[in-house]
Design brief:
CATH architecture of chain A: Roll
Mean pLDDT of chain A: 96
Number of strands of chain A: 6
Low-confidence stretches of chain A: none
Structural class of chain A: alpha+beta
CATH class of chain A: Alpha Beta
Largest interface: A-B, 44 and 44 residues
Distance between the termini of chain A: 29 Å
Oligomer: homodimer
Helix content of chain A: 10-25%
Radius of gyration of chain A: 15 Å
Number of domains of chain A: 1
Amino acid sequence: MSAEQEIREVIEGRAAAMTSGDARAVLAYYVPEWVQFSLAPPLKQRAESGDPGPLTAWLATFQAPPKREVTELEIHADANVAYATSIESMSATPVGGDEEFTLWYRVTVGLRRVDGRWLIAHEHQSVPFYMDGSFRASVDLQP
Amino acid sequence: MSAEQEIREVIEGRAAAMTSGDARAVLAYYVPEWVQFSLAPPLKQRAESGDPGPLTAWLATFQAPPKREVTELEIHADANVAYATSIESMSATPVGGDEEFTLWYRVTVGLRRVDGRWLIAHEHQSVPFYMDGSFRASVDLQP
């Protein structure tokens, strides 16, 4: 299998594990410690794949695990370092809410090949914001 | 010079060129065509380093070119593919405004080594947003 195929399986496998609500399976795609630029503050977080607590807690804020879509995936891989870009969505209904939302956002991941396996070593997820003076996050965009 | 040193010079050289207001010098750090996830919409843009028009127009919205700071730079490089992460700021006064703002944001870049030179081939810049129901962009965070 080519590096591109292996990395595609990592990105799509992570999304599928999220949709099945399995925090440990999601985190198995990551190196033990990585730098995360998340949709929510702070600017930067150090995350640990050995600790499913934060992800499990986040999943519990929805009535069911979010449905996920991965589109426009582009992969650039060398022997042991790669990065991938995509436009992804999550659809979910918050606990206590009665309406499902769908959020489209940009994803850039950095990957490293460790013992023959590609793992996510950095993750940057975001939406842009409107520079019209409102400083609203652009949560209504679609690809 | 190591790949890390060369890439550090790319990231810091780009910031310095921005502060000197030289759009062509900024774009000389990029491959001819790349995918950009910008602070402002849309979700995704194809940009061309041969066309300084959009960057020149953006620079003209400020009274002087933005001052820039690059912090917490981390670089992961293989022979020909690399990615780098940083927390950066820009400080500027909009045309027609009377107050300088400082914005801190996250940056992930993907780089490729082309004819022996490291060039930026992907750029993702963002701030997170508050998930308190306000959907406000987090433009007030500091590292």
